[in-house]
Amino acid sequence: MPQGTCVFFLQTNSKQVKTVAVIGASNDRAKFGNKAVRAFLQRGYKVFPVNPNETEVEGLVAFKSIKDLPIRPELVTIYVPPPVLVRLLPDIADKSCDELWLNPGTESTEVLDEVERLGLNAIRACSILGIGVSPATL
User: Fold this and answer.
1) Which residue spans within 17-81 are E strands per DSSP?
2) Would you say 63 and 47 are in contact if contact means Cβ atoms under 8 Å apart?
3) Is residue 85 packed enough to be buried (19+ CB in 10 Å), middle (13-18) or exposed (0-12)?
4) Of the four listed, 21, 37, 108, 113, which is most buried by Cβ atoms within 10 Å?
5) 99, β-bridge pairs
6) Sign (positive/negative) of CA torsion 81, 14, 71, 39?
7) pLDDT tens per residue, range 36-69
8) What is the structure's pLDDT at 5?
9) Can you tell me the distance from the alpha carbon of 36 to that of 33, in angstroms, rounded to the nearest whole number?
10) pLDDT digits (tens, 9 = 90+) for 61-87
11) Phi and psi for 31 in degrees, rounded to 5?
12) How many CB atoms lie within 10 A of CB 130?
């Protein structure tokens, strides 16, 4: 599928998604883990930042683990490197999200194999662009 078509598909589907966990959320506004929090907030999503080293991100309570979220997020977007992500995937699968977005730099053969084994609906694309926001504007 051409990249433009994939992004259009994500924008169309994303209108139904209301809750998102941002794994790798950060207080560093230059990092994509922070830009994602701001982009999803701009689009009206209920955002749950996840980072074991933060207590708050962009004024939102940050959770140490996806296991700590009080809800099942409809969408999970990833901003951690593959060696970290592969350890988190079983917990992500336990939350039963509708979509798992693997942003550039988060996938590896090991990650993709584990995603398939766990039966996760993974989308390999930039989630910020997928919701119609340019990271350059954040």
Assistant:
1) 19-23, 46-50, 56-57, 60-61, 75-78
2) no
3) buried
4) 37
5) 75
6) positive
7) 999 999 999 999 999 999 999 999 999 999 999 9
8) 35
9) 5
10) 999 999 999 999 999 999 999 999 999
11) -85, 150
12) 23
Residue with tokens 């689009």: 43
Is the Cα dihedral 29, 80, 54, 93 positive or negative? positive
Q: What's the whole-model pTM score?
A: 0.87
Instruction: List Cβ neighbours of 18 (8 Å cut-off, separation of 6 or more).
Output: 44, 45, 46, 74
Can you spell out the DSSP letters for 4-29? HHHHHHHHHHHTT--EEEEET--S-T
**Listed residue (73, 72, 102, 97) closest to 6, CA to CA:** 102
Residue 39: its H or E element: helix 32-42
Pull the structure tokens for residue 29.
């506004």
- Would you say residue 15 has pLDDT above 60? no
Hey, what domains does the chain have and what are their CATH numbers? Answer: 3-137 (3.40.50.720)
Q: Long-range contact list for 46-49, CB < 8 A, 24+ apart?
A: 46/18, 46/19, 46/20, 47/20, 47/22, 48/19, 48/20, 48/21, 48/22, 48/73, 49/21, 49/22, 49/25
| pLDDT surpassing 80 at residue 14 | no
Note the pLDDT of residue 17: 52
